[in-house]
Each structure stands twice: as structure tokens, then as C-alpha cells.
Design brief:
This protein has 114 residues and is mainly alpha-helical. It is 39% helix and 9% strand. It is globular.
Length: 114
């Protein structure tokens, strides 16, 4: 994962965000499984900033939990897919295409077992 300094910054940022998955009932706490998530999606994934810069931002923020949350890899992947589905649905609706089938989304509940 890069330098020792970057690993230390990452651990400090994870601790600042609570050190465990934010999904109620999820017990994941191991740093190798935790991922930092923007609570509000930041677009279509084309804009990228370095992880190191993200860690520094989190450590300097007064209330990083207002913009970021920790999710285990499982919950982060599910949230990302759903965020992209919502973005695509919104774009289709704003273009006048309203025939998207909501049944393709499946269940909105998330279960990520240890």
C-alpha cells in the first residue's frame, strides 16, 4: 500500500471516521476491509484525487463525518452500484425517458456477513 507515512495517515483517517463500517449491524473493523466513502456521490467516478490527499483532508476537517463515512468493501460496492443506478435514472428522467424498469434494481436491503 505505499509508504509507512501513507499507511499511518490512512489509519489516522479511519480512526477519525470511527474505525468501523457505518452500516448498522455491520461488525467490520479491520483496516484492510474498510474503505472511505463520500456520503453524497461526487459524480460519475471520473474525478480522482490521491488517497493520501483524501486522508489529509479528513484529518484537517472539523466534522469529516458530514462528508465521509467508512464502509466495509461489501457495503461500499453495493452503495456505489446503487449511486450509479440513481444517477443514470435521474439522467434518463431529465431527458424525458421514463420507462426505466425499477424491478431491475432488486432489493434495497444490504446484508454483509462476517
Amino acid at each position: 500500500m505505499g509508504s509507512t507515512a501513507t499507511r499511518e495517515l490512512r489509519l489516522a483517517a479511519l480512526n477519525r471516521l470511527g474505525g468501523k463500517c457505518s452500516i448498522s449491524g455491520c461488525e467490520w473493523t479491520h483496516p484492510d476491509v474498510l474503505e472511505i466513502d463520500h456520503i453524497k456521490p461526487v459524480g460519475d467516478g471520473k474525478l480522482r484525487i490521491s488517497n493520501r490527499f483524501t486522508y489529509l483532508i479528513i484529518l484537517k476537517m472539523t466534522h469529516p463525518e458530514d462528508e465521509y463515512q467508512l464502509l466495509c468493501a461489501c457495503h461500499h460496492n453495493l452503495k456505489t452500484v446503487r449511486d450509479l443506478e440513481d444517477i443514470l435514472e435521474f439522467r434518463a428522467q431529465t431527458r424525458g425517458v421514463n420507462d426505466l424498469q425499477s424491478s431491475n434494481k432488486g432489493s434495497r436491503s444490504i446484508d454483509c456477513q462476517l
